[in-house]
């Protein structure tokens, strides 16, 4: 039941905007009474916090799984896998991606998630960048700045692929090209 409520909420929050969704609307979307969902969540904000935690967790697991697949390979392959993992998360979970990276609903005043798995995903990227610099795969520069630059490029790529699907992208070729361009540039 909780998962159904969260699925309805992600759909409605991304389609209509958080501020336009009520508990009653979420309940109607899954054909439940409003009182039924109140037994799982006290209010819309509680649903949002649970949903964001879930989305952040999925994001981090996607990055970790991509890196784990290459654990026996060198740092360049693990870094490349993490970059592809970021894009793949957005393509496989576009509504989750929109909630956590485009709508930035965790920035609402009543949502307190200062340290979450989205930040852990960034820390994972920073660690991979640090290792790549130490191994001579990337030029030695400011680790945080390079990580932020990669993150920004990944976000731009992923956002474009999600928000303009009819543009004629070959998502696989475009993603590979972008990742290789990022790495060659560094």
From TrEMBL:
It comes from the Bacteria. One of its GO terms (molecular function) is transcription cis-regulatory region binding. Residues 1-59 form the HTH tetR-type domain. Residues 22-41 bind DNA. The keyword Repeat does not apply. Keywords: DNA-binding, Transcription, Transcription regulation. Gene3D superfamilies: Tetracycline Repressor, domain 2. It holds the Pfam family TetR_N. InterPro entries: Homeodomain-like_sf (IPR009057), HTH-type_TetR-like_transc_reg (IPR050109), HTH_TetR (IPR001647), MT1864/Rv1816-like_C (IPR025996), Tet_transcr_reg_TetR-rel_C_sf (IPR036271). This is TetR/AcrR family transcriptional regulator.
